[in-house]
Amino acid sequence: MLGQVPDDADLGAMSTLPVAGLSALHVLRRAGQLLGRRVMITGASGGVGRFAVQLAARAGAEVVAISGNPAQADGLRALGAREVHTDPAAVDRPVFTVLDNVGGRQLVDAFASLEAHGTLFSVGRTSATDAVLPPEALLGTEGRHDRSIRTFFLFGDPATDFSADLTWLATEVAASRLDPGISWRGPWARHDEAVQALLGRRLHGKAVLDVN
Question: Closest Cα to residue 168, out of 158, 159, 177?
Fold first, then answer.
């Protein structure tokens, strides 16, 4: 469960990696070969989403990022997104896989965008609302058959060794090849301010508290 951090690394940036960085890395691995394929990431401006956009783009995917905040579009394109939309329903071409961090209506619309044999991975449920699929969603209309929804839990297999992955992620962040997306940082004494900003959904990315 332990990775090695480079000697000159910013430890605040390292703290963003588990669980967000590992979740993005492992769910994209489960999606299979991504080179040349369209990958949709909902909640793309969040902690897991930002890592997933970067890692999918590096794997050769055509990344379709979904963020409810239009102001995040330029930043997501800079991370590697080919398309940025505020809603999955606005995507007009099918995608090979979906990494869904939101749930609710976005999961339903993202599932509708899957091509035949595509898979949606349910990683997060920040909307805290029900995902209600209409009956026709399960009919495989327009030739889109054998689509699936898979749940994801990073620690589902207690035998998984995360050491090499954590070390690799730490090396990439320390070398500025992976952006941890820190949007708020301050001393531990300001923890209440950070918590309220996160609960109020005023932050996109990660909040880091430094213990001093």
Answer: 177
φ/ψ region of 209 (left if φ > 0, alpha if ψ in -120 to 50, else beta) reads beta
Give the per-residue pLDDT at 84.
Answer: 98
Locate 193 and state its tokens: 């301010």
Residue found by looking up tokens 């669980």 in the block: 19
> Where are the alpha helices (H) located in 59-207, listed in sequence order?
73-79, 104-112, 163-174, 191-199
Domain residue limits, the chain: 11-151, 182-212
Q: What's the whole-model pTM score? A: 0.93
The structure tokens listed for 212 are 């001093």
- HEC string of 86-123 equals CCHHHCCCCEEEEEECCCHHHHHHHHHCEEEEEEEEEC
Give the model's pLDDT for residue 141.
66
Show the low-confidence residues of the chain (pLDDT under 50).
Answer: none
| Cβ partners under 8 Å of residue 114, min gap 6 | 94, 95, 96, 97, 98, 120, 144, 147
Q: What is the pLDDT of residue 115?
A: 95
Q: Tokens 């897991």 appear where?
A: 48
Q: How far apart are CA 49 and CA 117, in angstroms?
A: 23
**pLDDT, tens digit (0-9, with 9 covering 90-100), for 101-149:** 999 999 999 999 999 999 999 999 989 999 999 888 887 666 778 899 9
Q: Pick one of 3.40.50.720, 3.60.70.12, 3.40.630.30, 3.30.360.10 as the CATH number of 11-151.
A: 3.40.50.720
